[in-house]
């Protein structure tokens, strides 16, 4: 099994509203997220994915944390 890294963004406006993106593959709303491009840092991935999925440019405020996860089977 190959390992893939990814990122997601939590975008909150000044009124405390959370920004979600409508997924193309499922009829769900989700946090903007995606896979890390080769040589890309997690912060760069988060900014790029937010722009690609919402059309909005964001600035990086702070990194919440880095959590490694291994997903063996998708539900």
TrEMBL record:
Residues 2-75 form the Nudix hydrolase domain. InterPro entries: Nudix_hydrolase (IPR020476), NUDIX_hydrolase-like_dom_sf (IPR015797), NUDIX_hydrolase_CS (IPR020084), NUDIX_hydrolase_dom (IPR000086). Pfam families: NUDIX. One of its GO terms (molecular function) is hydrolase activity. It comes from the Bacteria. Keywords: Hydrolase. Its cofactor is Mg(2+). Belongs to the Nudix hydrolase family. PANTHER family: 8-OXO-DGTP DIPHOSPHATASE-RELATED, GDP-MANNOSE MANNOSYL HYDROLASE. This is NUDIX hydrolase. It comes from Rossellomorea vietnamensis. The lineage of its organism: Bacteria, Bacillati, Bacillota, Bacilli, Bacillales.
């Amino acid at each position: 099994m190959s390992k893939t890294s990814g990122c997601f963004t939590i975008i909150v406006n000044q009124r405390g509203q959370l920004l979600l993106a409508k997924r193309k593959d499922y009829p769900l709303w989700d946090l903007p997220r995606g896979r890390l491009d080769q040589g890309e840092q997690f912060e760069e991935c988060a900014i790029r994915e937010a722009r690609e999925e919402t059309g909005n440019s964001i600035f990086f405020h702070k990194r919440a944390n880095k959590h490694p996860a291994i997903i063996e089977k998708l539900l």
